[in-house]
Amino acid sequence: MAHSVTDHQSPLPVSEATVLALPPSGQAQNLSSRWTAVDSLLCGAFAGAVAKTVIAPLDRTKIIFQVSSNRFSAKEAFRLICGSYMKGGLLSLWRGNSATMIRVMPYAAIQFTSHDQYKRLLGGYYGYQGHGLLFVFVYLLLLLLLLFTTDCCVCFRALPPFTRFLAGSLAGTTAVMFTYPLDMVRARMAVTAREMYSNIMHVFMRISQEEGIRTLYRGFTPTIMGVIPYAGITFYTFETLKKIHAEKTKRPQPHPHERLAFGACAGLIGQSASYPLDVVRRRMQTAGVTGSAYVTVLGTMRAIVTQEGVIRGLYKGLSMNWLKGPIAVGISLSTFDITNDLLLKMHQIGFSAH
Question: Are 101 and 227 in contact (CB under 8 A)?
């Protein structure tokens, strides 16, 4: 029947023939909205690498103050940065950044990819009732299966507030579980001289031989306790601001500078909420090289408060975090969204070509 219709049709203009040769619009939209886990991993890794490289000198300075009993001030931080530059040159400000890249690229890749998967899973089970902890653990197990075997849909329907928070928290927790030893190595390299640890493998070998394998996971508990509110609040705030923006402006996607602002707000709120646990984590990670005996979360927190006070101890360096944190999170989230959109357009172009 199709042949008979074709036989009776007159030749079409080139433009019309080209249009009619394309697949149905519904099929094109369906294929263009599919997003592979590999694409998400690449976007996440790139976003994390760019953000951490930009703020590496500030991050290193913050860690040095976090693990010492010296009082933090902007003047002292500037003096430390200048001293590092005069002593070791410009590249000394990025000491430990190689370990940061090795950590942050898989961390960011897993976090962003799992966040997409959790939104997909939670959206698919929207309205699911009860079985709280079992519900969460089932999703953790499902993620391992889905991460590399299914496509993630780029467009998610709006999730309720708690579900947005839960998706972010689970994404952060998943990323930490897979990459924590690299964070420990990064912290050690940031606070020690090159003579002590020459490279990443040297850090792993010395810690394993002198302090034991378990030391690589020292500070894991406060990290998990901190990443739940941090990642949850950060992703929740970013997704909520984008949702409100879309409702107010009727534009599906914000401009790059708007994404940057949304990410900065998300980072500011998320990092402020979890900062004391970040200080505790760094103290426990570097106890082997600072001569301190930090073993448990509560014991470390009690020692910090007793010796340095609540504000000057648990919130030491927070003002610097307010400077570097929003910049890093803003760059990371906006870079991920931009590269996400870019790869999606490349997929669409490739589809149109076929």
Answer: no
Predicted confidence band at 176 (pLDDT cuts at 50, 70, 90)? very high
3-state per-residue secondary structure call for the chain: CHHHHHHHCCCCCHHHHHHHHCCCHHHHHHHHCEEEHHHHHHHHHHHHHHHHHHCHHHHHHHHHHHCCCCCCCHHHHHHHHHHHHHHHCHHHHHCCHHHHHHHHHHHHHHHHHHHHHHHHHHHHCCCCCCCHHHHHHHHHHHHHHHCCCCEEECCCCCCCHHHHHHHHHHHHHHHHHHHHHHHHHHHHHHHCCCCCCCCHHHHHHHHHHHCCHHHHHCCHHHHHHHHHHHHHHHHHHHHHHHHHHHHHHCCCCCCHHHHHHHHHHHHHHHHHHHHHHHHHHHHHHCHHHHCCCCCCHHHHHHHHHHHHCHHHHHCCCHHHHHHHHHHHHHHHHHHHHHHHHHHHHHHHHHHHHC
**Length of the chain in terms of residues written:** 354
Contact between 32 and 146 under an 8 Å Cβ cutoff? The reply is no
What residues contact 185, with CB distance under 8 A and at least 6 apart?
99, 103, 200, 203, 204, 207, 216
173 pLDDT tier (thresholds 50, 70, 90): very high
As beta bridge partners, residue 153 has 34
Question: 286 phi and psi, to 5 degrees?
Answer: -105, 10
∠180-118-217 over CA atoms, to 5°? 10
Which CA distances in Å does 59 have to 119, 224, 232?
Answer: 30, 20, 22
Per the CB < 8 A criterion, the answer to whether 60 and 96 are in contact is yes
Average pLDDT of the residues in 217-221: 88
Gap between the Cα atoms of 192 and 202, Å rounded? 13
